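Reviewer 2 asked us to include a model.

Predict the structure of this chain.
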Amino acid sequence: MRWFTAGSILLLLTCLFHLLGHFSGWNPSQGQERQLYELMVTYRLQPIDVTMMDLYLGFSLFYGLFFLSVGTIALLLRRMLEQNVPALQTIARVIALFLAIGTGVSFRYFFAAPLVCITAAFICFVIASFTVKIRSQE
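Predicted model (structure tokens):
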């Protein structure tokens, strides 16, 4: 159960770190970074009439809240189903599957910090699914 809890807490910490970065704001320097920022703030996507920055921030908030919700639900389920080992094993495998997909996306589109957080949580849930299975056979 330690790995299940560790994976859940890592997801909550990932949310916290992500939202800290999200709300710290941007202070682009001169040059290309400044031009990109100005383009994201001014370029409007049609027909939904939002800027690229709106879209970027919306996905960013969703990303953080996704990890908050999965981590919280995992901790609650771990507490509620502590004696139901097969259910916890299934939950650990389902979460690991989605985190495997998230790890793949992170390798392609993200930088090192979110990649490390997602991968670490993925590894915790994979270990949890096998650890729970081994303990249930004893």
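The longest helix spans residues 52-80. The longest strand covers residues 44-45. We have added this to the supplementary material.
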